[in-house]
Amino acid sequence: MNDEKLAQEIKTLVSKVIKIPEDKIDANANLFAELGVDSLLGVEIIASLDKQYDLDVPEEKLKNINTLNDIIGLVKEFLSKKK
Description:
Elements (H helix, E strand, L loop, with lengths): L2 H16 L20 H15 L5 H4 L5 H15 L1
């Protein structure tokens, strides 16, 4: 899967979880401060990613996640390790 398609899939997934239209999500916007994501939604996003991409993201990695681009980078990192 190419990076652009992966990024779009992740954006769609995040959009569904946080109930904000995809076109309103800036990939560099802070999920918590600007998009209203709370810790429960954050856990739901990670759970959805785990399920969709069969990832097992350790909790310490989640502390560095603040934007959609951070999520995309994290998923890419884990998918590259699985190959």
